[in-house]
Amino acid sequence: MLRRFRLEEPESVAEVSELLGRFGENAKVYAGGTELLLVMKEGLVQYERLINVKKLGLNQISAENGTLKIGALCTHHELENSALLQQQLPALVKLEQNVANVRVRQAGTIGGNLCFAEPHADPGTLLMALGAKLVADKGASKREILAEDFFVDAYETSLAADEVLTEIRVPTPGANRKCAYLKFGYLERPSVGVAIAFSLTGGGVSDVKIAAGCAGPAPKRVAEAEALLNGKSKDEASRSLAQAGAIAGKASQAISDLHGAQDYKEHIVGVLLKRAFQAAVS
C-alpha cells in the first residue's frame, strides 16, 4: 500500500533540478512509475515528494548531424514503433519489443529505466555497445555522460542529486556498422544480456564494442574482449569468440541469485556473445 506523498508538477527542467536540490533524498523523479511505484508499494523505499516530469515533453525522437536523439520520456512502446529507429537502429527496436510486458512498455520510459538502474534491465547494455551518451541537465547547464560511465552500481547512477536525464544520444550507425543484443532468462527480467557492435569492411572487423549486463550489479563494457576481435578478419574474429566470451563472462561481475548461479551466468555470457556476433554479421 502506498503511503501519502506530495506530487510536484514542475513545467521545466530547471524547476525539477531546483526541487531535487531543495528536497534531496526526500524527493524522487516520477515518470512512468513502473519501477518506482512498485518498490514504494512494497515499502522498500519511501519519498515525501514525487516530482512528475511528464509535462516536460521529452519524448521526441530525431536525427541530427549523424546522431539519433531520443527523449528520456519516450516510452518503450514509442521506441518499438518509431519508424526512424526501425530504419536507423533496428537493434534497439528489437530490444524494446521484448522489454518486460505490454503494460510496462506502454507506461515505462527509457529514461526511467536507465535512472532506476535495476540490474536486470535491458537498454543500458545495448547503449554501451552503441557508444551512446546520456544528457544530464540542470536547466542552466548540461553535460554528456558516456553510457559506460553512467551506471555505478545496482540502483545507482552517476547523475548528481540535482541533475535530470533529458536525452539519449546515439551515433547513427553507418552502412558497415553491425550490432545486436541478445538476452536469456526464465523469468520476466533477463538473467543475462550481451550486446556487440562493430564495423565490418572488406571482411575485416574493427571498432568493436562489447557489453555484458543483467548478470551482475550493473552492465559493463569489456575492452579486453573487444581487443581480441579488433583488426581481425571475420573468420579470425569468429575463432576468438570463445576466449572473448570467457573474458566477458568474468567481467560481467555475475552474482548468484534467483536468476541463476554465478558460473552459469558467466557461461551464458559467452554463449550469447557468439550468437550476437553471428546475428550482427547476418
User: According to CATH, what is the topology of the largest domain?
Assistant: Uridine Diphospho-n-acetylenolpyruvylglucosamine Reductase, domain 3
Q: What gap, in angstroms, lies between the N and C termini?
A: 49 Å
Number of domains: 3
Tally of helical segments = 13
Alpha-carbon Rg, integer: 19 Å
Strand order of the largest sheet: 4-5-10-6-7
CATH architecture assignment of the largest domain: 2-Layer Sandwich
Compressed to H and E, one letter per element, the order equals EHEHEEEHHHHHHEEHEEEEEEEHHHH
Output mean pLDDT.
96
Summarize the structure.
With 282 residues, the chain is α+β, with helices and mostly antiparallel strands. The protein is 37% helix and 26% strand.
Can you walk me through this structure?
This protein has 282 residues and is α+β, with helices and mostly antiparallel strands. The protein has three domains: 49 residues, Uridine Diphospho-n-acetylenolpyruvylglucosamine Reductase, domain 2 (2-Layer Sandwich); 111 residues, Uridine Diphospho-n-acetylenolpyruvylglucosamine Reductase, domain 3; 104 residues, CO dehydrogenase flavoprotein, C-terminal domain (Enolase-like, domain 1, 2-Layer Sandwich), CATH 3.30.390.50. Helix 10 runs antiparallel to helix 12 and helix 12 crosses helix 13. The longest helix is centred in the C-terminal third of the chain and has 20 residues. The model has no long low-confidence stretch (mean pLDDT 96).
